[in-house]
Structure formats: C-alpha cells, structure tokens
Write a structure and sequence with these properties.
With 446 residues, the chain is α/β, with parallel strands linked by helices. It is 36% helix and 16% strand. Helix 3 runs parallel beside helix 9 and helix 4 crosses helix 8. It is globular, with a radius of gyration of 21 Å.
Length: 446
Amino acid sequence: MPTRSTIMDTNSYRPEEAGELDAGTRELIERRERVLGESYRLFYRSPVHLVRGEGAHLWDAEGRRYLDMYNNVASLGHCHPAVIDAVDRQMRMLNTHTRYVHETIVDYSERLLATMPAELGKAMYMCTGSEANDLAMRVARAFSGGEGILVTREAYHGTSDLTSGASPALGSGQPLAATTRIIEAPDAYRVDTDDIGHWFADQVRSGIADLELSGIRFAGLMIDSIFSSDGVLPGTRGMLREAVEVVHAAGGVLIADEVQPGFGRTGESFWGFGRHGLVPDLVTLGKPMGNGIPVSGLVARPEVLAAFSDSIPYFNTFGGNPVSMAAASAVLDTIQSEGLQQHSAEVGAELLAAYADLADRHPAIGDVRGAGLFIGCELVSDPATKQPDRGLALAVLEELRSRGVLTSVAGPHGNVLKLRPPLAFDRGDIDWAVGALDDSLTALGA
C-alpha cells in the first residue's frame, strides 16, 4: 500500500465524509468528482467553497470571512489592485511569446537580476515552478556532466517527470528516480548536535557517496532554503554554507528553489538563500512572483547556464509573455515601494513571538520556528520525548477552520502547522490567528 503524500493527502477531504456536508457543497463536490481526475484533492473534512478574496482574507459562498494563513501564491494578497491593473492594461495591448522583441521581459529581467547577487546574470521564464525546477535539473546535469540529484526527505519540487522523481513529499505512490538520493533535513529541534550546519554537510557528503557507489555521477543539491515541506526549518543564518562547499567540491551545483521562501517572505533578505550568505548556481522562482498569474523563472550563473543553452534551444510558448511579465513587474514594484520585506520581518517577528507565548500555555506546542511571514508550529504528544502528534495537528486544522483560519500541515510526520499567509497579513490579523489556535488547543484539551 503506497504511503500517503504529506502535502496532498494529510489534510484532505474523504468521500466517506460527504454525509456531514450541507446539500449545496455536497452537490458541487459530486459534480466535481464526475468531471475531474481522481488525483485532485480538497482541503478539510468539510471543504471550503470560496468565492472572493481580498488581501489576507477570503469569503465563502455563505459570506463568511476567513483569514488565509497558507496561500503564498497570492503573495501580495488576494486580488491585489496593482496586479489586476497591470494585467488588464497589458492584455488590452498585446500578449504573445518570447520569439518577438518586447520591452516587458527585458525590463523585468533587469530589475529582477538587480535583486540577486552579481554572479547571477541570466534569466529564463516558464509558467510554473515545476517547469523552472525541471529546467534547473537539466541545466545542472549539462554543467556537471552528472545525473545524481540530492533532495531532503520531505522535499517537494514539482509535478513534471523530472521533478516528481525528486519530490518524496508526493508519497511512495510516486516513485523516486533512480538518480535521486534522499538526505535528512537540518531539523535543529530533533537532531541532537551543537552544529546543525556541519551535521547537514555530512548528510550531503553521505548522499554524494551513495550516488558514487551506484556509479552515478553527482549533479547537484536542490533545496528550498527554509525546508518548508520538511516542516519549516529556517535554521540559523549561514547554516547551509558548509553543505554548499561540499556540493561544489564534488563538482555539483546548488539549485535554490525559491518558490516558497523568495520575494521578501523571510524578511531577513529578499531571497531565502540570502539568509545563509549563499550565491547559488541556479535559482528557481514560481507563481508568487506574479501573485498567482502563471509565471515562473530560472536565474543562473551565466557560465552554468551556458553548458545547456549554448547547445540546446529552449522555448516555452507562454513563459515570459507580456501579460505575465506585467504581473511580475507589478509584484516587484509593490514589494519594493511598500517595503514588504521589512513588513514581513517586523510583523513576522511579532507573530512568531505571539505563537511562542502560546507555547508556554499549551504543552502540545513542542516548537515554534520561522523567519518573516513563514512559521512552523510543531505539535507533540509529549514535550519531553518530542513525540509527533499528527492526529492532534489534523484535529487542530479542523478547529481552526471552524474559527475562520485556514492553513495546513507539513513535515515527515504531518504534525507541523505551516503558517505562511500572504504578505498583506498585518498586525491587526495577529490576534485572530493566534487566538484561534489558542481556542482550538483549549477545546481539544491540549
């Protein structure tokens, strides 16, 4: 029996729960099940029928308001007027592909690269994070001459053939590629070590050695620098430097998957990798760059990209189209003009402190960690043994939903609340978010 996907199945609706739904929701789900493929999943035992969004808030079909603590795709906030206006203007003029000359892709690329380390000098565009990571893997292999890719135990990097084969979070029903090796994530809460960075570097060494024993040449390490699917593991600043030195010494490249930690979300730097003082070889970006408009990107060291692009043409029909570039430009404008990186740092620190205070009153909260507006709250059955409590986490999700707060879980045990709201989340939302968790744990006797 395949193990369930931690990111798809843990907090999902089951058909046997249909009897608990109101007639309208049940009918809509039945229509959905008739026409959509069975691989799709819905959140919650009683799925939420959303009809409108604004900022960090959402409304369902009955007019009830929710606080969105999970959706980083609408990175600025739902239905942000700057993105709506930019898309509308460009759609009224032209939308086409990158084989014609157009200013939007050039203007945006110059501005995007200006936010990156100087060593990263080339950009390419796609429509999804999966496509960006897929291309990054191809480039890594062309540059290194190897095939082997290292990922962490609960990593999620996409749904293409290449990326799903390097995404263990999809569960055992999705087999990993023979060229993929899993290493443990740097979980400072559970790993007993005085130097988590050195410990993680040893995991990378072991992974490379295992590839070599199988006759597979190492190509690269692909990581999300906040290890979001592994349970939100921000670590200390600089934690990843030694691991990257190991990667380069072995002839591989570092692929920084910034789909989740990028664009100011972690507060301490514009990019998640910046917290660790790194210059990746390849950086991948996803839909948060367009506030939900399908756009993604790959930023690279020119010499690394050249190994691929000097011999292989690349074309993505709507990757980098003028409308998507207009959306991405509006996002970048807004983050910079409204100081959203600083906002994420300041409001995120207050939110983290509020959750930490809550942990003093609820022993079921084993650990609270995060950077900016990206927080993990780990639930345990015994604080002394740190025994993960997946059942409690799922019950808390349902209690939070009943109090109008939407989020989900992460980590190998499915027991970490993944709290990652749009950047529109403000100080005025903190009491609602934290109070709902307080009330939920109290109701559950935890």
